[in-house]
């Protein structure tokens, strides 16, 4: 997934790892940071526990920033939560006066074959919509100088 943003690379990189902006972008699911880094910028080896409502259920997930090279990319991975695996890579590339922000989101649900079926039939599209909403919000914030 790519998002083209009319803002400098560094602004987009920092917007994407800003806990407060993430919370605002996920207002519809009442997501909040409840542990670890709960405000401001998250950095390499930092972690955050998110609490949100999805599918009528309150869920918690802890993610850690496992890789980071400012301002080119960072990776957050689930270390505790509902997925068997979750890895979100964020890439940033300068394109003149704008930035191309790319996401690679890999996840697997637990429960073997049933989990794979849920991923393909429902969860993949749901997660893509969440990322799209988040990226539109970040684009707007970055283009308006946060």
- Using only C-alpha atoms, the radius of gyration works out to 15 Å
Q: Percent of residues in helical segments?
A: 25-40%
The averaged pLDDT comes out at 93
Task: Return the string of H and E elements.
Answer: EHHEEEEEEH
Q: Please tally the β strands and state the result.
A: 7
Uncertain stretches:
none
Strand order of the largest sheet: 1-7-6-5-4-3-2
Give me the number of helical elements: 3
> Which oligomeric state applies?
single chain
Cα end-to-end separation: 22 Å
Largest sheet: 7 strands, antiparallel
Strand content: 35-45%
Helix- and strand-based class? alpha+beta
Shape: globular
Secondary-structure blueprint:
Elements: E1 2-5, H1 9-16, H2 19-25, E2 32-36, E3 47-54, E4 57-69, E5 73-80, E6 85-95, E7 98-108, H3 112-143
Antiparallel strand pairs: 1-7, 2-3, 3-4, 4-5, 5-6, 6-7
Helix pairs in contact: 1-3, 2-3
Q: Describe it for me?
A:
The chain has three helices and seven strands, in the order E-H-H-E-E-E-E-E-E-H. Strand 4 (57-69) and strand 5 form a beta hairpin. The longest helix is centred in the C-terminal third of the chain and has 32 residues, at 112-143. The chain has a seven-stranded antiparallel sheet, covered by helices on one side. With 146 residues, the chain is an alpha+beta fold. Helices cover 32% and strands 41% of the residues. The protein is globular and about 45 Å long. Helix 1 packs across helix 3 and helix 2 (19-25) crosses helix 3 (112-143).
């Amino acid at each position: 997934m790519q998002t083209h943003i009319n803002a400098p690379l560094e602004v987009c990189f920092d917007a994407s790892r800003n806990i407060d902006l993430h919370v605002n972008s996920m207002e519809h699911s009442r997501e909040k940071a409840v542990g670890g880094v709960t405000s401001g910028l998250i950095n390499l080896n930092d972690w955050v526990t998110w609490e949100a409502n999805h599918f009528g259920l309150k869920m918690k997930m802890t993610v850690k920033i496992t890789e980071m090279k400012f301002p080119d990319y960072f990776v957050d991975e689930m270390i505790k939560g509902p997925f068997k695996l979750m890895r979100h890579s964020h890439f940033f590339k300068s394109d003149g006066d704008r930035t191309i922000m790319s996401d690679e989101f890999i996840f697997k649900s637990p429960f073997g074959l049933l989990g794979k079926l849920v991923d393909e039939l429902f969860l993949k599209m749901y997660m893509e919509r969440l990322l799209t909403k988040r990226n539109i919000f970040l684009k707007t914030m970055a283009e308006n100088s946060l």
